[in-house]
Each structure stands twice: as structure tokens, then as C-alpha cells.
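Example record

One chain of 78 residues, shown exactly as stored in the release files.
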Amino acid sequence: MKKRVSLARVLATDPKVILYDEPTSGLDPIMSQIINELILDLKNKLGVTSMVITHDMKVALNAKRRYRLEEGVLREIT
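Predicted C-alpha cells for this chain:
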């Protein structure tokens, strides 16, 4: 619930870009899926750019573009 409240506070500012730092950490699989769907829904309905930092590959697979940090260098995964 805290994650949803935090997101609502961000949306009140009408952002163009939202950065999510491990949005599903500490959540059970069902709630993780709900948060992932919410992120995609916001992207589609509001047209905001979403940047998600995650170790969860299920989340990463939903991305249009994926990058990884390798020895301090950001590299695109193709």
C-alpha cells in the first residue's frame, strides 16, 4: 500500500518521466504483478516515460529497451 501511495504522490505533479527504484522489492508475487501492471498501465494511459531499476527479470522483460550496468558502464541489451 505504501508503494501505491508513493506513486499517487508522484502522479499529482504530472510528471513526464517516472523513475522506479526496485518497485517490487519485498513484495509477494501477486502484489509484484499488480505493481508491474500498474506501471505499464500508467505508461500507456498517461504517456509518461517509465524507467525501472530492478533485479527482477520478469519486470525487465516488459521493457521496450533494457540496459545493464557492467563495470560502471551502462550497456544496452539487444
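Notes: Strands lie at 17-21, 49-53, 66-70, 73-77.
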